[in-house]
Automatic annotation (TrEMBL):
Superkingdom of origin organism: Bacteria
NCBIfam families: TAT_signal_seq
Protein known as: Twin-arginine translocation signal domain-containing protein
Length: 174
């Protein structure tokens, strides 16, 4: 019985922390017009750390082409977010707001340094822990990040050759 109570207490504390983090971020960062989601410094830094952890070997290995590929993936992910309903954009903004707060980043993600200084293994561990977390809210946050990054990556025709996909059949394009 105490195990269940502990689980409920931890879940309630996590929900309160997420809500408070999102509220604080909204108060500190005004919503820009025309889209609620802004790829600001902290969201950009978090995505720059998350994208290589999710895409892994799909990104080019050499530095000359890796940088532009990361920027393109970041731009496509941002575009995918902007294509979502406004309420969903606000939820994603709250998620990045939470990840931007140092205490929340340390407690929930386990990333001790800023996103710019986060080690790739640390980011991969954070994503894996959210993927398998017992709280559904963190699993959903992981799935959102995963689907946004990978979905926007594979939606781009320039990434199809790496997986051997020739593209849609010409008959279907008519």
């Amino acid at each position: 019985m105490s195990n269940r109570r502990s689980f409920l207490k931890i879940g309630a504390a996590a929900a309160i922390t997420l809500a408070a983090g999102g509220a604080i971020y909204r108060m500190v960062t005004p919503s820009p017009l025309p889209h609620p989601f802004a790829l600001d410094g902290q969201a950009r830094a978090a995505l720059n750390a998350i994208i290589p952890a999710l895409l892994g070997p799909l990104l080019p290995a050499d530095a000359a082409t890796r940088g532009p590929a990361l920027e393109a993936a970041l731009a496509r992910t941002h575009g995918a977010i902007l294509g979502l309903p406004l309420n969903t954009q606000k939820e994603i903004q709250d998620l990045f707001g939470l990840l931007a707060l140092a205490p929340a980043r340390r407690l929930l993600a386990g990333v001790s340094d800023s996103w710019e200084q986060a080690r790739p293994a640390e980011v991969a561990d954070f994503l894996q822990s959210w993927r398998n977390h017992r709280l559904a809210m963190l699993q959903i946050a992981y799935l959102a990040l995963h689907d946004l990054v990978l979905g926007s990556w594979y939606a781009d025709p320039s990434s199809w050759a790496a997986i051997g996909y020739p593209g849609p059949r010409k008959e279907l394009l008519k």
